Amino acid sequence: MSWLLFGTFVVLMCAAVPLAVALGLSGVAVILAAKMGIMSVPNTVYGGIAKYPLIAIPVFILAGMIFERSGVAARLVRLAEALVGKRAGGLAVAAVLVCMVLGGISGSGPADAAAVGAILIPAMARVGYPKEFSASLIAAGGSTAIVIPPSIALIIYSVLVPQASVPALFAAGLIPGLLCGLTLMAAALVFSKINGWGANDPEPAPPLWQSFKEAGWGLLAPVIILGGMRSGAFTPTEAAVVAVAYGLIVGLVIYRSMNWKQVWDLLGEAAEISAVILFMVGLAALFGWAVDTIGVFNQFAKWLTATGTSETLVLLAITFMLLVAGTALDATATYFVFLPFLLPVAQVYQWDPVWLGIVMTINVAIGQFTPPTAVNLMVTCRLAGIPIEATLKWCAWLVAAMTATLLVLTFVPGIVLFLPRWLGYL
Amino acid sequence: MSWQDGGQPVTLPPRARFRAERFLGAAAMAAIVLITLGNVLARYFTDISFAFTEEVSVFLLVFLTFIGSAKAFLDGNQMAVTYFVDKLAWPWRRRWLLFGLGMSALMLALLAWYGGRMAWDDYDLEVTSPGLGWPQWIYTVWLPLLSLLVLARIAQGIAHLIRAGGASAPRVPPVPPGGRPDERSR
Q1: Do A27 and A33 touch, CB atoms closer than 8 A?
Q2: Model pTM?
Q3: Cβ-Cβ contacts under 8 Å, B84 against chain A
Q4: Contacts of A268 in chain B (CB under 8 A)
Q5: Are A354 and A167 in contact (CB under 8 A)?
């Protein structure tokens, strides 16, 4: 039965059937074969989408788009430039910094990479960075958006693993997300120093205080989102809607960079993007339902312990498997396909579900910029006008650097769990 | 996905504008934001609770999901692993494209048919909603109705692809700089 489920999924997936439909139909195949009652199909799909925590997803997507359109990204770039100054590697560090701050507003990697890439790929090219490098770096920096809260991926993880609450996951994602960003900065700095990129920039750095005043409104957004949730004032959904209201005030009143017509268009665009995610979540619920009723996966965990495989080896095997899967699948599909195996294993080794969520998400994040199928790279390479293969040289280093950080977080769960424990979520 | 032709995906009929879907999607989105914002404000400034509106919000979520998905099937914005199929020559890629649309149509047909039975059961047994005590079928009836809408859109795409024939390979058109919806949703 499990072969029917995963076999159908893999075949349909490789045949380029939409992932949502591949997950849904393989679930239906098992429901039919096990004679579990076909009426569970519409019930599961409706119930899979009609969940209160999921409301946060479209609202966070809208918030991210409002800040993106209101011109926050360009102002953050100026501030980051003012902070790091004009030196070799300055713009590269600034690029990752801006990716991280925008990641604290939006929860989508490619959207983050697109917003930063549109401004910085041309700017970095002017001062001597090769486009292959800047496209790789910004793709990698953008991937931190799904680890740094708010994160759409972590909201979906929480729906699947209710023991891991959204506030706990968001708190747990902060330090690992920042560490991933710092790793990328360090790697970028090394390459820039060696090659002298960005050393001869004729223009002076923008004035610090002026840029800070302009970017301050954008910088406040992550503070409101995370602070509001931390203080217990808002649920994640409410924090998202407050971010939308704040973004509208910034865009319509303070920066005056948006009008109501554009807001209406943004609503439509956000609805389309949310629909793609939620459709997948709804149909994947069929897959999840089939998994629950088969229940063969505990045997996998039992077999694993019976063979006496060491925990280190298991962790390394899981990391490798997820890194490969992450290049092709998005976070939702990764969770639905792999959690049935990983949750029983986690129980055996007494892994914390919050830590597991963060580690899985960083794996997916690395997949977002691992060539040749990486989604963030597709976005930045399109902006740079270069083929994805050309980035391989730089991406390989960045993937290696972030994987090293991932392994540290995998083997030292304390780093991930420190903040949620300290804040009292665990 | 890269099966597009002259700036227009080959499964997207040129006259399909999706104006109604786009309008209703934006309206549902606006309603979700306003209801949630209303809840926050009401909770802080009055002691009235609108918690019962939760069932309307989650219904709007289902509505938004299906109304927004219709277009994504035709313009290639549903997430899919096209790595292998993209390596094939156009005539074969076209066949797999038809296969994917056919499978999608099957899924939506299942949802429309059995969703219809689910809504009928809710009507027949006079099930009421937990929060507002409204008849449950006024929510659940939208699952089969909207599934039929998506199914009709997929059928439109299949018909267009068949009519277009398999002779000439499509060119890859420019993509908006902000990325396509299937990318931005990851």
Answers
A1: no
A2: 0.91
A3: 14-16
A4: 22-23, 25-26, 29
A5: no
Helix (H, G, I), strand (E, B) or coil at A335: helix
H or E stretch covering B15: none
Nearest-CA neighbor of A18 among A333, A377, A272? A333
A148 backbone dihedrals φ, ψ, rounded to 5° = -70, 130
Closest Cα in chain B, distance from residue A309 (Å):
33
Question: For chain A, what's the residue count?
Answer: 426
Contact at CB, B36 and A237, closer than 8 angstroms: yes
Reading the block at residue A32, the tokens are 């039919």
Whether A361 contacts chain B with CB within 8 A: no
The token pair that represents A183 in the structure block? 């790793």
**In contact, A99 and A144? CB cutoff 8 Å:** yes
The pLDDT tens digits of the residues spanning A37-52 come to: 899 999 999 999 999 9
B62 and A49 within 8 Å at the Cβ level: the answer is: yes
Per-residue pLDDT reduced to its tens digit, A355-404 = 999 999 999 999 999 987 788 998 999 899 999 889 999 999 999 999 99
* pLDDT tens-place values along chain B, 186 residues long: 333 434 567 777 777 778 889 999 999 999 999 999 988 888 778 777 676 788 899 999 999 999 999 888 887 778 888 888 888 888 888 899 999 999 999 999 999 999 999 999 999 999 988 888 889 999 999 999 999 999 999 999 999 888 877 666 655 556 666 677 777 777
Q: What is the distance of C-alpha B167 from the center of its chain?
A: 30
Nearest 5°: the CA angle A363, A368, A370 is 90
**Count of A–B CB contacts within 8 Å?**
228
Interface of B with A in 157-176 (CB under 8 A): 175
Residues 31-60 of A with CB under 8 A from B: 38-39, 41-43, 45-46, 49-52, 54-55, 58-59
B182 in reach of chain A (CB within 8 A): yes
Three-state DSSP class for B5?
A: strand
Question: Are B83 and A245 a contacting pair at CB < 8 A?
Answer: no
Looking up tokens 């209101």 gives A70
Please provide residue B41's backbone torsions phi and psi, each rounded to the nearest 5 degrees. -60, -45
Tokens of A99: 């990716």
Amino acid at A343: L
d(CA A7, CA A337) in angstroms, rounded, equals 12
Pinpoint the alpha helices (H) of chain B: 19-45, 54-74, 90-124, 137-140, 142-164, 181-184
